[in-house]
Write a structure and sequence with these properties.
Number of strands: 0
Oligomer: single chain
Shape: globular
Radius of gyration: 17 Å
Number of helices: 6
Distance between the termini: 20 Å
Helix content: over 70%
Largest sheet: none
Order of helices and strands: HHHHHH
């Protein structure tokens, strides 16, 4: 996947996350933010590893999100708390998985410019 659409998607994800927090109160922005946090990690994985399979990017994003959440049980340094949070919350684990699944589905279903038959060594491929 090309890096430009991934960078645009990452920017849109950040704007959505900030917008949700600005527009609503309560659990909706909190859990939407959790899901979008994992979507952003997914997109960062794609920026670093553009040819990653969608399932591998989803597992990586969910795994990193879960690792950060569980690290909160041990204590996050004060300087990192705005980025990584400070309080373990079990429902967050579900929303991280939901974000990873949404990113995976979007990536897996995203139309490619290269026809399927060319990606698999069909007619016209070298």
């Amino acid at each position: 996947m090309s890096r430009l659409p991934v960078m645009v998607a990452a920017l849109v994800t950040v704007v959505l996350g900030l917008g949700v927090r600005l527009l609503w109160d309560g659990p909706v922005p909190k859990y939407a933010g959790d899901a979008l946090y994992t979507v952003l990690i997914y997109l960062l994985v794609l920026l670093v590893w553009p040819r990653v399979r969608p399932w591998a990017a989803a597992l990586t994003a969910a795994g990193l999100s879960w690792a950060i959440e569980f690290a909160q049980l041990l204590g996050i340094p004060e300087v990192l708390r705005p980025l990584l949070g400070s309080t373990f919350n079990p429902p967050d684990l579900f929303w991280y998985a939901a974000g990873a699944a949404t990113a995976w589905a979007t990536h897996a279903l995203w139309p490619s410019r290269v026809p399927q038959w060319q990606r698999h060594g069909g007619p016209g491929s070298s």
